[in-house]
Amino acid sequence: MNSEVTTVMKLRTIKRHLREGSKNILRNGWMTFASVGSVTTTLILVGVFLVLMLNLNQIAENVEEDVQIKVLIEMGTEQKEIDQLENKIKSIQDVSFLQFSSKENELERLMASMGDDGEMWKMVNQDNPLNDVFVVKTEDPLDTMDVASRIKSFDYVDSVDYGDEVIQKLFTFNEYSRYVGLALIAALVLTAAFLISNTIKITIMARRKEIGIMKLVGATNGFIRWPFFIEGLLMGILGAILPIIIVVTGYYYLYENMKDRPLIPFIELLPFNPFVWQVSLILLGIGAFIGIWGSVMSVRKFLKV
Amino acid sequence: MIEMKGVQKTYRNGVTALQGIDINIEQGEFVYVVGPSGAGKSTFIKLMYREEKPTQGSVLINGHDISEVKEKLIPQLRRGIGVVFQDFKLLPSLTVYENIAFALEVIEDSPKKIRRKVMDVLDLVQLKNKARFKPDELSGGEQQRVSIARAIVNNPKVMIADEPTGNLDPETSWQIMKIFEEVNARGTTVVMATHSKDIVNTLKKRVIAIEYGRVVRDEQRGDYGYEA
């Protein structure tokens, strides 16, 4: 892609670039500080946002996973017919989970769920008003409605129950929130990349004279570019340190607090380990990428001397 | 060694800086380029290290037309030519040692060789004791000696200088000229644009005078020929 005189770099030259790149971090003290600072600021935002988004996503998924279809079997259906129905439901492709639950079983669960108040149901034990039930789950929760309406049309089915309207709304909400979240993260990263490359551009602008001198002495573009590449990488990594510390400690306290007394029962945070490390890795990656991208893009402009 | 044939240089803004230039400089020569400000001296010098390309004609170094050299081979061309400027053009963040070593790192010399060559050349310009200094901690004369050291550390066949003593007081200028003579004595061709009447008239060399973009005088052991 560019004008290198020597195509194969000697090991000592690679070492030289590594050394110069890291030395430049110190040589350009304040400029480095400005660049690293802007990486840090934006990565803190990205980090906090990422933690929120991924957890919300997880909660949404948990709720979706709990969605099930209750197939109420007509009263007085024979065991043979129940078996037929079971096979029919099984044969639906999207069904991933199918379990029979007798009406006695259902009554017990109902009583258990009501605690002490459930005791009164004991009286009706002989005359159980409930139906035998198939509990059905689908591979993709989004198929729930479709599958439910198909089952409804089968013989021996009294009715199906899956909290239709609520589910419909929940799914739409989850879907939108996912897209919005992704869009926000993308926008944030792009803004960050833009801001940072600008900061780095300013720091390199101050060094355009140096680049000109290097070319006069016979340095190839590649030779000039490499230390900048290393410098950008290091700045990105340095800029990621503080955000990572903040995310790790912040999430640790949040997680420990929520674990002992959950505010809302079904809100369960992603486990501290490995989640924070994954987020840290993402932050490190974004930092490194932005640092390299910013410095290499800016140097490119000045190489055409 | 250095040959210009029918060279014309017209800048993009329409200004013709040089025209009808035909000169030939032999290996080992020492040449002053003189003339009033704006006469085209700097352009003449810039053509020799391919900072500028001629609009017409050709510039040959060792028989190779450098105006035809591809962009990607320019670095290699420059490594064979030492260039010294009026404003020194040192890298401000590097030490004296690192500035000189840079010219050798570019050609991927071994650290051992680099160390030896840099120390040798620092000896020649008498700055061994300032190797660890930064350029802004040095006087003008010292900075120019560093830039000369950088220019010759590769043992180039040609050294080109654009008013190397322009920013220096007379006494310091003479120190610089002494180094130039030593470099020339080692067989390096020296081409030097200058405004210094004193130097040209005292250290007699070949003089090429440029006025209004043309060579108006070219004589061995010539005089400066202008009022200083």
UniProtKB/TrEMBL annotation, chain B:
Domain ABC transporter: 2-228
Record-linked InterPro entries: AAA+_ATPase (IPR003593), ABC_transporter-like_ATP-bd (IPR003439), ABC_transporter-like_CS (IPR017871), ABC_transpr_LolD-like (IPR015854), Cell_div_FtsE (IPR005286), P-loop_NTPase (IPR027417)
GO annotation (BP), single: cell division
First-listed, main subcellular location of the protein, grouped into a coarse class: membrane
Alphabetical keyword list: ATP-binding, Cell cycle, Cell division, Cell membrane, Membrane, Nucleotide-binding, Transport
Membrane topology: Peripheral membrane protein
SMART domains: AAA
PROSITE patterns, A to Z: ABC_TRANSPORTER_1 (PS00211), ABC_TRANSPORTER_2 (PS50893)
CC per GO annotation: plasma membrane
One GO MF term attached to the UniProt entry: ATP hydrolysis activity
Localization annotation: Cell membrane
NCBIfam families: FtsE
Family according to the record: Belongs to the ABC transporter superfamily.
Subunit structure: Homodimer. Forms a membrane-associated complex with FtsX.
Summary of the function given for this chain in its UniProt record: Part of the ABC transporter FtsEX involved in cellular division.
Protein name in UniProt: Cell division ATP-binding protein FtsE
Organism listed in the record: Salinibacillus xinjiangensis
Gene: ftsE
